[in-house]
Amino acid sequence: MIYTVTLNPSIDYIVRLDKVLIGSVNRMDSDDKFAGGKGINVSRVLKRLGIDNKATGFIGGFTGKFITDTLEEEGISSHFVEVEEDTRINVKIKADAETEINGPGPDISSLKLEELKSILASLSADDTVVFAGSSPKNLGNTIYKELIGLTRKTGAQVVCDFEGQTLLDSLEFEPLLVKPNNHELGDIFGVKLESLDEIEKYARQILDKGAQHVIISMAGDGALLVTQEGAYFAKPIKGSIKNSVGAGDSMVAGFTGEFVKSKDAVEAFKWGVACGTATTFSNDLATAEFIKETYEKVEVEKR
């Protein structure tokens, strides 16, 4: 079974208007409310690919109920730890410039943290767990080391979608996949990466530190998979960009879902690229039909 862990989920409240006038009353043209959080996005895309999975993490209040109701409507099973405070709301304003206002999330007690640990400790070597996104403020991202270590002791594989030090900290646990973008990879090593050769060079350093597979996403310039066997470049696919939210999560879902089935890293990479690209060209997470249509356009070449 694939599990997704979202420690700080959200309702993503998206509002659209032509321009934001500071200090004035603004009237939106349209709005949407989505169950948000990186792990939850992974769960939703996996389900659209026909891959069963279970979502876990912390959830609370009326906002948390919106998320669990959404997952239930989409046929996604969940086992969240319920907390007293409300799950956060993130406001994403799409106007002449894109602006985000993210909530901090609830405080997590030591008792509730132990409940989540018991869920992770009950897994087995047949499971794969996706850890993604930020942690509630009172826990801090350092909690991931403890949770990932606990999960790996069960024999389960882990996928880690983080940035910076949190990504580096995860490497000692030999994650199945890490997926920084080219800018995040450069920031880790304090360099500006301008060529594919440079990107591959530093991605290999991430492999050397413990990762089993590294995908470097490069927005409109394609993506690079680096493994012990070789490096593979996915050419960019042309289309109208509508959405940056969830594209990376979609890529993680595509790779993880296919790899768990086939153990074929290149085929998994193709599905990851298809999912990520399809979401970029969609208003929300991509549909199964559009993902399959996009998959037919994916071109991967070995470097």
Automatic annotation (TrEMBL):
<keyword id="KW-0423">Lactose metabolism</keyword>
<dbReference type="InterPro" id="IPR011611">
    <property type="entry name" value="PfkB_dom"/>
</dbReference>
<keyword id="KW-0547">Nucleotide-binding</keyword>
<keyword id="KW-0418">Kinase</keyword>
<comment type="similarity">
    <text>Belongs to the carbohydrate kinase PfkB family. LacC subfamily.</text>
</comment>
<dbReference type="GO" id="GO:0005829">
    <property type="term" value="C:cytosol"/>
</dbReference>
<keyword id="KW-0067">ATP-binding</keyword>
<dbReference type="GO" id="GO:0005524">
    <property type="term" value="F:ATP binding"/>
</dbReference>
<dbReference type="InterPro" id="IPR017583">
    <property type="entry name" value="Tagatose/fructose_Pkinase"/>
</dbReference>
<dbReference type="InterPro" id="IPR022463">
    <property type="entry name" value="1-PFruKinase"/>
</dbReference>
<dbReference type="InterPro" id="IPR029056">
    <property type="entry name" value="Ribokinase-like"/>
</dbReference>
<dbReference type="GO" id="GO:0009024">
    <property type="term" value="F:tagatose-6-phosphate kinase activity"/>
</dbReference>
<dbReference type="GO" id="GO:0008662">
    <property type="term" value="F:1-phosphofructokinase activity"/>
</dbReference>
<comment type="pathway">
    <text>Carbohydrate metabolism; D-tagatose 6-phosphate degradation; D-glyceraldehyde 3-phosphate and glycerone phosphate from D-tagatose 6-phosphate: step 1/2.</text>
</comment>
<dbReference type="InterPro" id="IPR002173">
    <property type="entry name" value="Carboh/pur_kinase_PfkB_CS"/>
</dbReference>
<dbReference type="GO" id="GO:0005988">
    <property type="term" value="P:lactose metabolic process"/>
</dbReference>
<comment type="similarity">
    <text>Belongs to the carbohydrate kinase pfkB family.</text>
</comment>
<keyword id="KW-0808">Transferase</keyword>
<dbReference type="Pfam" id="PF00294">
    <property type="entry name" value="PfkB"/>
</dbReference>
<comment type="function">
    <text>Catalyzes the ATP-dependent phosphorylation of fructose-l-phosphate to fructose-l,6-bisphosphate.</text>
</comment>
<dbReference type="GO" id="GO:0044281">
    <property type="term" value="P:small molecule metabolic process"/>
</dbReference>
<protein>
    <recommendedName>
        <fullName>Tagatose-6-phosphate kinase</fullName>
        <ecNumber>2.7.1.144</ecNumber>
    </recommendedName>
</protein>
<dbReference type="GO" id="GO:0016052">
    <property type="term" value="P:carbohydrate catabolic process"/>
</dbReference>
<feature type="domain" description="Carbohydrate kinase PfkB">
    <location>
        <begin position="11"/>
        <end position="282"/>
    </location>
</feature>
